[in-house]
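Standup notes
- DV: blocked on the single-chain target, sequence here:
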Amino acid sequence: MDRTFQATYEHGVLRLDAPLSLPEHARVTGQVTIVSPPIQSETSRLSGEEFEKLLDEFSAPGCPPLPSDFSRADIYLDHD
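- DV (later): unblocked, structure below
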């Protein structure tokens, strides 16, 4: 059984973003894929230009931008 989860590496420990539904003492193996750079500290804020560059790096090539009036509500319109 394979499961995908999100976690953050802090002080030598992976901290899960949400609990996993596994039996107690289950042993697992994993593969680590870094999906985002470390969060910048309060003292090293990104400039607007640096932020835009990061957004460009993480955007899918060829995808059109979202409309300016796009909101979180749009994501859930068709959700049951």
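- Follow-up: Residues 60 and 67 are 16 Å apart (CA to CA).
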